[in-house]
Amino acid sequence: MHALQATETTSAMLIEDEEEAIAMFGRRIERFRRAGRDIIASCPILQEQFDHMVAAPGMGEVSTFAVLAELTTLPVTLKSPQISRYAGLDVRLTQSGTSIDKPGRLSKGGNAYLRSAMFMPAMSAIRCDPYVKAFYDVLVGRGKRKMQAICAVMRKYLTGLWACIRAGEDFDTAKLFSEKHLLKA
Question: Is the Cβ–Cβ distance between 37 and 65 less than 8 Å?
Answer without folding.
Answer: no
